[in-house]
Amino acid sequence: MTAHSSALTPLWQTLLDARLLRDLDVQLAQLLARWDADDSIQLAVAITSQELGRGHVCFDLTAWPERLAQWQALLPEVNLPAVSVSELTTLLEHSPLVRLVSDPSVVEAQAGQPLTLFAGRLYLSRYFRFEQQVACWLQQASLPVTTSADTPELAQQLRQLFTPQSETDWQAVAVATACDGRFTLISGGPGTGKTTTVTKLLALLVAQSEQPLLIRLAAPTGKAAARLTESIAKAKAELAGQVNAAWLAGIPTQASTLHRLLGVIPGLPEFRHHGQNPLPLEVLVVDEASMIDLPMMARLLAALPPQARLILLGDKDQLASVEAGAVLGDICQFVAQGLSSQQAQQLQQRTGYDLQNYVQPAGHPLRDRLCLLCKSYRFAADSGIGKLAEAVNNGDVKAAYAVWAQDYRDIRLHSDEQRLDMAISVAAKGYHAYLALLAAPITSDNAIVLLKAFNQIRLLCALHDGPWGINGMNQAIGQRLQAQGKLQMSSEWFAGRPVMITENDYGLGLYNGDIGIAASDGERLRVWFVLPDGKAHGFLPSRLPAHDTAWAMTVHKSQGSEFTHTLLLLPPEVNPLLTRELLYTGITRAREQLDLFATPEVLALMVRKQTERYSGLGVMLETLQTKLA
Asked: Which of the chain's termini has less CB crowding within 10 Å, N or C?
């Protein structure tokens, strides 16, 4: 390619000043302009980079006219390129920067061009390869397999795990689905029994195997891994006496983070385990799969041995990953295609349930690997939390308002002008319980009690900055507690300070999202954390990796957690972060009590606004299936 020079033009400066693009977006466009100086190409490059920063994997070219029209309305004085989508597509097709792809089954180790155009979507080539790797793995793993799972013992084993019911037991159907095949996804909201289901599934796989199975448990964050560890141990204890003890004995209880599972190499973006050095396992269960971004999913799938089973657990309606991609949501779109006739018949033979009403004549084979759990066992029929979550999830503003009108005991809406101060007061009062435990020296034993007391209540925010964000609320709550005489904030570190780790430290075993509390052991101040081994460990503050004060945390950071009493604080102004998924996620962190601090107008806006994550994974899978047909 022949290089051209490109200087910062008034257009770029105007877009930067208006904060319509980031410095990174413009720098990339300028860099690549050395090989293609066309204004439209440069703008498309900048927008593609911008989309990636917003969590989108690619730039859907059909959005090009709307994006330019929005910018032109904001900046009427600038001259934007006047090319149509078809003209832009033609320019991209002939650009030396762009690799054209029509057949995603053809995998190239490295693309020579920095951009890839596929199905009307423009990608940075690195992210196209990530999506292509995921699509090809899912396509292969979703194909029907010849299995010996249907033996006379299988139906009997399923009856040992599940008591037949008058209505379809979707947990039993999920286990029957996952007892063969390389891939299964089990999605469901809080309280639908995902962990119980997967524990019974693992028991069945252990029963089916003639040799001990190499099973591993993992989750995206340390906090989620610790919760999975706790949940699996609890499920095994509840099943003891009901299920063959030997089956349960083969199920591990210790979960790890995906980073630790794959093996971090300090200073490098790659992991120790990959296609040439696969993970030593036969079954992998990954919880909180909605939090897995596209690059991590691609690396995880590449590291799986050829015959290993992957079981993903997650809630498809929760917030997507912070980084680019919404892989769980992309996969779950195939739930709408129902079941194949063959799969419905096979599941009926295994479980006894008639699933013919769910059969659709055509669909991608991936649909037969997806299981949706809808019945919540956590929320009773008179639960306002459950009813509100359902209304929000359905995008039904009227139903959400009706929930508030019914005066449920477990939910309270604070919408008056004093709601910010009320949130501070309710949070501070709720934290009195754990602070009262600081009177005695903290040891490894009573540190667990301290941390459990702290986790009874949590304030969740949508934002980081400002009085309605976690920074402002952490400061305000601390000041309120000090004014109440509950703690003494004489320096950065003080007894009672809660912190959240924001950077993984594999040496200490502390991970992004872990919560600890500073408390004296009788001699010196330590910060106490419960690690994945289930025991509390105290660390000197000076040893901790990056961290923040954590009386308040973002809804994003709360994923994988539950609190007896949840306070959800939403800002009064419209913000792109205020979406249905954020509201649903915040509501469903509450087990018994929810206090929501928001105006009806903001709630209505969030219920109506669904998160969009642009990707080509669904189209890619359909294209791969068409080529096989």
From this structure: C
Q: How far apart, in whole angstroms, are the C-alpha atoms of residue 27 and residue 16?
A: 11
pLDDT mean across residues, the chain: 89
Q: Is 416 exposed, middle or buried (0-12, 13-18, 19+ CB in 10 A)?
A: exposed
- What does the DSSP assignment read for 49-92? HHHHHTT-SSEEGGGHHHHHHHHHHH-TTS------HHHHHHHH
- pLDDT surpassing 60 at residue 5: no
Burial class (CB in 10 A: 0-12, 13-18, 19+), 560: buried
pTM score of the predicted model: 0.87
Q: How many residues does the chain have?
A: 629
- What whole-number distance in Å separates Cα of residue 5 and Cα of residue 19? 25
Q: At what angle do helices 341-351 and 152-161 cross, to 10 degrees?
A: 70
Report pLDDT digits (tens) over 451-465: 999 999 999 999 999
pLDDT in tens, 154-167: 888 888 888 888 88
pLDDT tens string 292-337: 999 999 999 999 999 899 999 998 888 777 777 789 889 998 999 9
**What per-residue string of b and e applies to 529-556 under the rule 16 or more CB within 10 Å gives b?**
bbbbeeebbbbebeebbebbbbbbbbbb
- Report the alpha-carbon distance of residue 539 to residue 555 in Å, rounded: 27
CA 372 to chain centre: 17
How do 498-501 and 525-530 pair as beta strands? Answer: unpaired
CA distance 393 to 403: 13
Handedness of CA 206, 196, 456, 558 (dihedral sign): positive
pLDDT, tens digit (0-9, with 9 covering 90-100), for 9-43? 888 999 998 899 999 999 999 999 999 889 999 99
- The whole-angstrom separation of Cα 67 and Cα 166 is 53
The rounded distance, in Å, linking the Cα atoms of 607 and 406 is 19
